[in-house]
Write a structure and sequence with these properties.
Two copies of one chain form a homodimer. Chain A is built from nine helices and four strands, in the order E-H-E-H-E-E-H-H-H-H-H-H-H. Chain A is an alpha+beta fold. A four-stranded mixed β-sheet of chain A has the order 2-1-3-4. The longest helix of chain A has 31 residues. Chain A is globular, with a radius of gyration of 18 Å.
Amino acid sequence: MASNMFLYWGTGSVPCWKAMIALEEKGFGGYPNQLISFDNEENKADYVTKLNPRGQVPAFKDGDIVVNESWAICDYLERRYGNQGTQLIPSDIKEQANVLQRMYEIFNVENTVLKELAYYYMFDTTDENRDETVLKERYEMGRTELLIWEGYMQKMGSGAFIASKTFSMADVYFFPYLAFFVRLGLNLSKFPALSEYYNRVKDRASVKASWPPHWLKEPSKNNFMSHV
Amino acid sequence: MASNMFLYWGTGSVPCWKAMIALEEKGFGGYPNQLISFDNEENKADYVTKLNPRGQVPAFKDGDIVVNESWAICDYLERRYGNQGTQLIPSDIKEQANVLQRMYEIFNVENTVLKELAYYYMFDTTDENRDETVLKERYEMGRTELLIWEGYMQKMGSGAFIASKTFSMADVYFFPYLAFFVRLGLNLSKFPALSEYYNRVKDRASVKASWPPHWLKEPSKNNFMSHV
């Protein structure tokens, strides 16, 4: 029951958003929760570390069961509450295999686009220490990776989702990355199938209900993804 | 059926080993396979990219179903062949939640110990470019991370596994990292519960059958993990 659940989360965190979309899709909208501030390091506060000794969010409990890693929360919710809300892992074996493949293939997006480009080379590197040649390579790597997903979406066809005809766990995992890149300036006109997908999924009830609140209030200070 | 399966794999690859332990545990020992050479870049050969356009291994098919990412292969095998061989995701809700939590918590081992320390700072950094202070920090981070797992194992108790009383998917995911660190010189006497675990699991049939063949033939050229 949602009333036995509790989630600590941070706004704009891709892992938190994944867990929150899954909670909405499984019909737990309105679950008790607390937004914590990364700026004030509230993720290291006692009440968070009591649930997650690593001091990371999402930190989640369902009654006396504690699950913290975002992937584990999503996996747990679908396994325990499979018959409730949206079925996020299809029953059909072929469709299921494709969803599983895309769910974990998202590591490539995480490593190439989010980490190597956005985090390590933009957020964590000062302007003086940024080499134009390396930067171009990372933009190119990011573009190559996103074009792979553009290809998947083109193959799925208009009206479908990233890995199956219906909304699945692969969308729960993929959409928050895509939306983050759009916020950082990604020009979706270069990715027409992803553009159609983005504009459709952003209006989905579970996604709207969990949209990072500070994104609604203030634009991003960064738009470097426009070079991808 | 194992005879419809095919796996391309590389020796000493943690992701490949995970998939191979899962295949053995599910009772598919003897599945058709081909060892590819990373040195000869055989992972970029046509016959691999036909299955996995990314040119990465493991690349796996089961009849006409293709699944490539190691996590996806393990997840697929357990979902499709749940009633066969070892049950890798426990049915009991509490035990299941703990297994899921540890399965994905392994990202911390991957990021902190394997990537930040071993890959980025040892294999990919030349001796001249290595800063002693940073190196000490990374050893310390690696030690802190492995002590978390030492704590989990101590709590599970002697004879148990990393996340449950019986061997689970969390062991399939965790053991190859631990064995790789031991090969790179990790001194297990600093981690007594993990030491007992390592010595027991290394003799498990699925693990022995899939042990990286080149590890048996030649010792590692590196032992930097002894500083952790």
